[in-house]
Design goal:
The chain is mainly beta. The chain has one domain: TonB-dependent receptor, beta-barrel domain (Maltoporin, Chain A, Beta Barrel). 5% of the residues lie in helices and 54% in strands. β28 and β29 (617-626) form a beta hairpin. The longest helix is centred in the first third of the chain and has 15 residues, at 2-16. The protein is globular.
Length: 702
C-alpha cells in the first residue's frame, strides 16, 4: 500500500512517541475551548447545530426525532427528518442522499470512522442501513475535513456504534425492546443490550442487538397521483391488497455485536461486527412505458472491524495519540428482472459478489501556541464479481477491481483567543487493476486543499468561512455496468472536481441559550467541473458522461426555540434555497446550453412543533416541503417538471414509569400518522412516497 508507506515518513515520529488522533488532555481542552474547539449543542428534536473550524454540523438522535419512528429505523427514514439533507428513492429501489445539490456518490457514510460508501457503486443505500444500537448520527455538510477518505465531496454521514463510554454510563447495564406495526401489517421487532465489566486496568463493554422488519408494501397516496407525465397513471396496487404499491414489499433481519476495552490510561481496543439480510421488491416507475420490473431476492452485507488507539500520551513535543482501524465488508446481491408487472416470468438475472477492505491510520498532535496537527491515510480495495445470465448456469463471472487511496494533513492554529484558522492538503489516487475486459483508467491522482476560519464574537455568536477543492473518481458501476440493459457503459469517465465556498453565522450560548434560542445561517457556492451526468440516447438507454459543469449557490437557515417555561416543548425549522444550473460544455457560445439539474429541488423546508410533556404525554407535528424539481424523461427525450409538494406527519407518545431502578424501567407508547393529508409526494418522476400510514409502537427500556 503505497500511501501507507508515504504516511510512515510523515507520521513516523508521532507514532514512535505516541502521537495520535485523540483530543488533547481535558485540562488543555478547557483552556483552549474558546479558540480551538466549540462543543456541540444538545437539543431534543435532533437539531443540534455547531461550527468547528469552518464546518457546519447537525447531530441527530434516532430516539429524539420530531416525529418518532419505529424502533431501530433505517437511516434513510431518520435523514428524511433531518435539516438540509435530501433523501429520495431511485428507480432501482435504492435511497440516495444529497446535500447542497450534490450527487449521492459525493457524500460519505462512515461507521466508527471507516467508510461504508465504497465498493461497486461507491455509495450506500440508507434504506438498508439499520440504526440498531446507534445512539447518534452526525451530518456534516460540505467538505469540512480532508481526512475522511477518498471521494468525500458533498458531506459526511457519521455513525458511532462502538465509541467510548459516555460519562455516567461506564458501569450501567442497559436493555431495550421495541415493537411497532401499521394498519397494513408492516411490523418491526428490535432488541439490543449493553453490559460493562470491570476488568484489570479498565472496563470491557459488550453490546449486541437484533432487529427484524417485514412489510407487505407501502401505502398508495390517494390525492395527486400524477398528471400522466411525471407521476403517471395510478398504481393498480399489489396482488391481494390494492391499497399498497406494486412490488414494494421488504423483509430484513439485521444485527450487531461489539466489544470494547478502555484502559484507564486512555488506550482502547474494539471489535465491531454488523450485518443484514434483505429480500425486497422494487416499485416500478409510473411515468414511463417500460420501467424496471425488478426484485432483489437477496441483499446481504456483513462488516467486521478492528480498532486500536493509544489514547492520549505525553511526548517530548506535547500531547498526542494514534488510532488504527481495519475492516472488511462483504456484500452479496441478486437481482431478477421480469418481463412485465405481473412479476412471474424472469427475463434475466444478475449476481454480484463484493469484497471491500478498508485500512485507516490517523494521528493527532499538539503544537506550540495551542496549535494542532492531524494526519490520516485511508486505503480501500474493492473487488466485484458480476454474473449476467438468464439461468446463471453457464455464465462466468466478470471481475472488476478498484483501489482508492487518500493521505491528508490538517492544521488548526489559534491566531487569537477567539479566532481559529485551519488549513489542509490531501492527495487522492485511484486505479482499476481489473476492468472486465473493458478499458482501464490506469492510475489517476488528484490533489485537494481546504482553508477555514472560525471567529467567536462572544459567548453566543460565531462566524465561520471556508473554501475547499477536491476530486471524485468514478465508481466501478458508473464505468462498467449496463444495469441489466438500462445503461450504455462508459469506461472513460474522468474525475469530477468540486470547488466549494461557504460562510456562516451561528447564534447560540450566552444570552441566546438563556432563552433557549438557536439560529444558523449559511451561504454556499459550488462549482463542479467534469460533472458525471446521465443522458438519454436515441435507443432509450442512458449513458453517463463528463459533459457538463454544474454551478450551485444557496442559503441554508436553521432555527430552534426551546422555551424553558414549557418543559419539553420545541419549535424548530429549516430551509434551503439554492440555484442549480447544468451547463453543457459541448454547446459553446449557445445561450441555450443551460438546464436544471435532475432530482434537485431548489427549495426545501420543514417545520416541527413538539408540545410540553403533560402527565407523560407528548405530541408533535412536522411539515416537510419540497419545491419544483426536474427529471429526464426517457420516453420524451427531454426534461419535465415535477411540481412542488408538502406533506405533514403527527405523533403522540406516552411514557409510563414501571420501576425506579434496574432494567426495563420505562414503557413508551407511540401513535403516529405519516402523510396526514395522504398526498402524493414524489421522490422523483413516477416514484411517490408512501401515502397515509397509521403506526403504533411500544418501547420498553432502561
Amino acid at each position: 500500500m503505497s500511501l501507507f508507506r508515504r504516511f510512515a515518513f510523515v507520521a513516523g515520529a508521532a507514532v514512535a512517541s505516541g502521537a495520535g488522533a485523540a483530543p488533547l488532555s481535558a485540562q488543555q481542552d478547557r483552556q483552549d475551548s474558546t479558540a480551538r474547539r466549540i462543543e456541540p449543542i444538545t437539543v431534543r428534536g435532533a437539531r443540534a447545530p455547531s461550527v468547528t473550524g469552518g464546518a457546519t454540523v447537525v447531530t441527530i438522535r434516532p430516539d429524539s426525532l420530531p416525529v418518532p419512528l419505529a424502533p431501530a429505523p433505517h437511516i434513510g427514514d431518520v435523514l428524511r427528518q433531518t435539516a438540509f439533507v435530501l433523501v429520495r428513492q431511485n428507480s432501482r429501489g435504492e435511497m440516495e442522499i444529497g446535500v447542497r445539490g450534490s450527487d449521492s456518490r459525493q457524500a460519505a457514510v462512515l461507521l466508527d470512522g471507516l467508510p461504508l460508501t465504497v465498493g461497486w457503486d461507491s455509495r450506500t443505500d440508507p434504506s438498508l442501513i439499520p440504526t440498531t444500537g446507534v445512539e447518534q448520527i452526525v451530518v456534516v455538510r460540505g467538505l469540512a475535513s480532508l481526512l475522511s477518505g477518498a471521494n468525500t465531496l458533498g458531506g459526511v454521514i457519521r455513525m458511532d456504534l462502538n465509541g467510548p463510554l459516555a460519562r455516567g454510563t461506564r458501569h450501567a447495564t442497559s436493555l431495550q425492546l421495541g415493537t411497532g406495526v401499521d394498519q397494513y401489517a408492516s411490523r418491526v421487532l428490535s432488541l439490543h443490550a449493553a453490559r460493562p465489566f470491570a476488568v484489570p486496568g479498565g472496563t470491557l463493554r459488550v453490546r449486541g442487538g437484533v432487529t427484524h422488519r417485514q412489510r407487505d408494501g407501502f401505502a398508495l397516496p390517494a390525492f395527486g397521483a400524477g398528471d400522466g407525465l411525471t407521476g403517471g397513471l395510478p398504481d393498480a396496487g399489489s396482488p391481494g391488497n390494492a391499497a399498497l404499491r406494486t412490488n414494494s414489499d421488504q423483509r430484513q433481519l439485521d444485527g450487531f455485536a461489539t466489544l470494547r476495552y478502555d484502559h484507564r490510561s486512555g488506550a482502547f481496543a474494539g471489535f465491531t461486527a454488523t450485518g443484514y439480510d434483505t429480500e425486497r421488491g422494487v416499485a416500478p416507475e409510473q411515468h414511463i412505458q417500460t420501467p424496471r420490473y425488478w426484485r432483489y431476492p437477496r441483499q446481504a452485507r456483513t462488516l467486521g472491524m478492528f480498532t486500536l488507539g493509544t489514547g492520549l500520551r505525553r511526548t517530548p513535543f506535547g500531547f498526542g495519540s494514534v488510532q488504527a482501524s481495519a475492516g472488511r465488508s462483504t456484500q452479496d446481491i441478486e437481482i431478477e428482472s421480469f418481463t412485465n408487472r405481473s412479476y412471474r416470468t424472469v427475463s434475466t438475472r444478475e449476481l454480484g459478489d463484493e469484497v471491500s477492505d478498508v485500512y485507516r491510520l490517523a494521528a493527532n498532535h499538539s503544537l506550540p501556541r495551542n496549535a494542532q496537527l492531524r494526519l490520516a491515510v485511508t486505503e480501500t480495495g474493492v473487488r466485484y464479481d458480476e454474473t449476467l445470465d438468464a439461468q446463471l448456469t453457464t455464465a462466468r463471472a466478470t471481475r472488476y477491481e478498484q483501489r482508492l487511496g487518500s493521505i491528508g494533513a490538517e492544521l488548526d492554529i489559534p491566531v487569537h483567543e477567539r479566532l481559529l484558522v485551519s488549513g489542509g492538503m490531501v492527495h487522492d489516487e485511484a486505479t482499476t487493476p481489473q476492468s472486465g475486459g473493458r478499458p482501464s483508467l490506469g492510475r489517476l491522482a488528484r490533489t485537494g486543499w481546504r482553508l477555514g476560519t472560525t471567529l467567536r464574537v462572544n459567548d453566543g455568536i460565531r462566524l465561520h468561512a471556508s473554501a475547499s477543492e477536491r476530486a471524485r473518481f468514478a465508481a466501478l458501476r458508473e464505468l462498467y455496468s449496463g444495469a441489466l440493459n438500462r445503461f450504455d457503459p462508459n469506461p472513460l469517465l474522468r474525475p469530477e472536481r468540486l470547488l466549494g465556498v461557504e460562510t456562516g453565522l451561528t447564534l447560540d450560548g450566552g444570552r441566546f441559550a438563556e432563552y433557549g434560542v438557536q439560529f444558523q445561517l449559511v451561504g454556499f457556492q459550488h462549482r463542479l467541473d467534469d460533472a458525471v451526468v446521465r443522458i438519454a440516447l436515441p435507443n432509450r438507454l442512458f449513458r453517463r458522461v463528463n459533459r457538463d459543469a454544474i454551478r450551485s449557490a444557496g442559503v441554508e437557515m436553521l432555527a430552534a426555540w426551546t422555551p424553558r417555561a414549557l418543559r419539553g416543548a420545541t419549535i424548530s425549522g429549516d430551509a434551503t434555497l439554492q440555484r442549480i444550473r447544468v451547463y453543457d460544455r459541448t454547446i459553446v457560445g449557445n445561450a441555450n446550453n443551460e438546464r436544471r439539474a435532475e432530482h434537485n429541488p431548489e427549495r426545501r423546508a420543514s417545520l416541527a412543533v413538539t408540545s410540553p410533556t403533560v402527565l407523560g404525554v407528548r405530541g408533535s407535528v412536522m411539515a416537510r416541503h419540497i419545491g419544483v424539481q426536474y427529471c429526464q424523461h426517457p420516453d420524451l427525450g427531454r426534461q419535465v417538471e415535477l411540481k412542488a409538494q408538502t406533506i405533514g406527519d403527527a405523533a403522540i407518545t406516552r411514557t409510563f414509569a414501571l420501576r425506579s431502578r434496574g432494567l426495563l424501567q420505562r414503557l413508551t407508547a407511540l401513535l403516529a400518522i405519516d402523510n396526514v393529508g395522504d398526498r402524493a409526494a414524489f421522490d422523483q418522476c413516477g416514484l411517490p412516497q408512501p401515502g397515509r400510514t397509521l403506526r403504533v409502537g411500544l418501547t420498553l427500556g432502561s
